[in-house]
């Protein structure tokens, strides 16, 4: 059974940093592209970043986080990370990781990040 568990959220001041983690299980982690999304109440979930499978050499970021967020993966730990720097209040959201298996999307439960002074 595919499972994704996010962690690392919390309250952070504007300009600060936070690192999110997502541990995957129940599938061959290194073979799959991994995604980070975020969602604000009342709005659609939006893709923040993705990282290619295997060595993760291909990465894509939303324009709103380009240059501030870094996605990475550790296949030995079945974990994908999202390093968030220079955080802004508008980054406040629930952050989710996702994988796709045979066309089916699997999501974690999310972790709340709040950027506020």
The beta-strand count equals 11
Count of DSSP-assigned helices: 0
Q: Give the fraction of residues assigned to helices.
A: under 10%
Please state the CA-atom Rg, rounded to the nearest Å: 13 Å
| pLDDT < 50 stretches | none
- What is the first-to-last residue Cα distance? 40 Å
Can you walk through the features of this model?
Strand 5 and strand 6 (59-61) form a beta hairpin. The model has no long low-confidence stretch (mean pLDDT 97). The strands form 2 sheets. Strands 2, 4, 5, 6, 9, 10 and 11 form a 7-stranded mixed β-sheet that branches. A 4-stranded antiparallel β-sheet has the order 1-3-8-7, with no helix packed on it. By secondary structure, the chain is mostly beta strands. It is built from no helices and 11 strands.
Features:
seven-stranded mixed β-sheet; 117 residues; single chain; four-stranded antiparallel β-sheet
Write the layout of secondary structure elements.
Blueprint: E1 3-7, E2 10-12, E3 18-25, E4 34-39, E5 46-51, E6 59-61, E7 69-74, E8 79-84, E9 93-101, E10 104-107, E11 111-115
Parallel strand pairs: 2-11
Antiparallel strand pairs: 1-3, 3-8, 4-5, 4-9, 5-6, 7-8, 9-10, 9-11
């Amino acid at each position: 059974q595919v499972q994704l568990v996010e962690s690392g959220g919390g309250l952070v001041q504007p300009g600060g940093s936070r690192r999110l983690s997502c541990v995957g299980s129940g599938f061959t982690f290194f073979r799959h592209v991994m995604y980070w999304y975020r969602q604000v109440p009342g709005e659609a979930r939006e893709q923040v970043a993705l990282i290619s499978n295997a060595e993760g050499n291909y990465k894509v970021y939303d324009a709103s986080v380009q240059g501030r967020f870094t996605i990475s993966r550790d296949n030995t730990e079945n974990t994908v990370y999202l390093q968030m720097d220079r955080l802004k209040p508008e980054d406040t959201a629930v952050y989710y990781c996702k994988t796709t298996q045979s066309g089916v999307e699997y999501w974690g439960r999310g972790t709340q990040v709040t950027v506020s002074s």
